[in-house]
Write a structure and sequence with these properties.
α5 packs across α6. It is built from six helices and 14 strands. With about 240 residues, the chain is of the alpha/beta class. The strands form three sheets. Strands 1-2-3-4-5-6-7 form a seven-stranded mixed sheet. The longest helix is centred in the C-terminal third of the chain and has 14 residues, at about 190-205. α2 (about 80-85) links the parallel β5 and β6 (about 95). About 45% of the residues are buried. It binds zinc ion.
């Protein structure tokens, strides 16, 4: 666990490099816009790691000062097994991009001629999110104090969330590698052209924020929107 700022902690999950994945817990102050959301929550968990992590999600949450029952809502940046593995431990609303909801529920079939499409067809059979209170997210949705930005490419339903307090949770839209923001590894994404378009569009629409929190690698506490813009300019 790493406390990034007063409202945000990074939960370090997964196994060992290169299968290390971040989840985050964000808490807004009482009386903030988060309580006006449909679920009335102030404690948001962003992503949930693998089903079996080297350090458990519960232990990382505790290190950040929370019990599982403290979590009010869960934002899943996308449906991949290293981000959704722990979601079944929570009986709370779970927000997932509409296209990824369609993928996991079987109302959209990913292409068989893409390795990830094939993988997802298998993955959704044994990790189906049945019994999870899934709430589909579309571009521009407000979830408490968060604004959702649909950022397809890695997955069709991938979304990034920017909180009004100045922190962005970007999942696998981009990673940190060697102290820099980078696009993720190409082999694990549906469409790298679309992903780069999403990074540029996100840089235009996300507004100003300080911290940027990727799904893999080390988060940056400051100059988040400047770092994002600089990556978008380089693509
Ligand atoms: Zn990932």
């Amino acid at each position: 666990m790493e406390q990034l700022r007063g409202d945000t902690a990074r939960l370090e999950l997964g196994w060992r490099e290169p299968i290390v994945v971040n989840a985050y817990v964000y808490e807004s102050p009482p009386g903030s816009a988060d309580e006006d959301g449909q679920d009335g929550g102030t404690v948001t968990l962003v992503d949930t790691g693998l089903r079996y992590n080297r350090r458990s999600l519960t232990a990382e949450l505790r290190a950040a000062g929370y019990e599982r029952s403290d979590v009010d809502r869960i934002l899943l940046t996308h449906y991949d097994l290293d981000h959704v593995g722990g979601v079944g431990q929570f009986d709370r609303p779970v927000y997932l991009g509409t296209c990824d909801v369609d993928l996991v529920r079987g109302s959209w079939d990913p292409p068989l001629d893409h390795p990830k499409g094939l993988f997802h067809r298998l993955a959704r059979k044994w990790f189906d999110l049945n019994g999870v209170d899934l709430r589909p997210v579309t571009d521009g949705d407000r979830i408490g104090g968060f604004t959702a930005h649909h950022t397809p490419g890695h997955n069709p339903g991938h979304f990034a969330s920017v909180h009004d307090a100045g922190v962005a949770f970007v999942g696998d839209l981009l990673w940190e590698t060697n102290g820099e923001l980078t696009p993720p590894f190409w082999g694990d994404s549906y469409d790298m052209h679309e992903l780069r378009r999403s990074i540029r569009a996100f840089a235009r629409s996300a507004g100003e924020f300080e911290a940027i929190c990727p799904g893999h690698g080390i988060p940056f506490r400051d100059e988040g929107s400047e770092r994002l813009q600089s990556l978008a300019d380089r693509l």
